[in-house]
């Protein structure tokens, strides 16, 4: 019988470069509803510590959890605050 262990991507997102590459891939693959991007930001925030990220973003911890949940609908300003707290920048390129 094969045993499987739970995989938590947050355990593998410590270096800033890995966080940026992961988020960039999610930007490219998101269906347009933002779910994949929220999920990626949630993973990255958990890797860095939700309490610290919330504090750095000027948000309550519960507010951060709610904003980045699968049912969350954060304002763009909230996303930008979280990205700044994570040390990430949003950028655009021409296709």
UniProtKB/TrEMBL annotation:
Q: Which Gene3D superfamilies match?
A: lambda repressor-like DNA-binding domains (1.10.260.40)
- The organism's place on the tree of life at top rank: Bacteria
Q: Which Pfam families match?
A: dnstrm_HI1420
For this protein, what is any one GO molecular function term?
DNA binding
Q: What is this protein called?
A: Addiction module antitoxin
The organism named in the record is Pseudomonas fildesensis
């Amino acid at each position: 019988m094969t045993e499987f262990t739970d995989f938590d991507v947050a355990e593998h997102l410590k270096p800033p470069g890995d966080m940026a590459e992961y988020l960039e891939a999610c930007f490219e693959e998101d269906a347009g509803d933002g779910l994949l991007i929220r999920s990626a930001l949630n993973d990255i925030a958990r890797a860095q510590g939700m309490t610290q990220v919330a504090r750095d973003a000027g948000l309550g911890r519960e507010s951060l959890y709610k904003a980045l949940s699968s049912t969350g609908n954060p304002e763009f300003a909230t996303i930008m605050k979280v990205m700044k707290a994570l040390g990430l920048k949003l950028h655009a390129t021409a296709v």
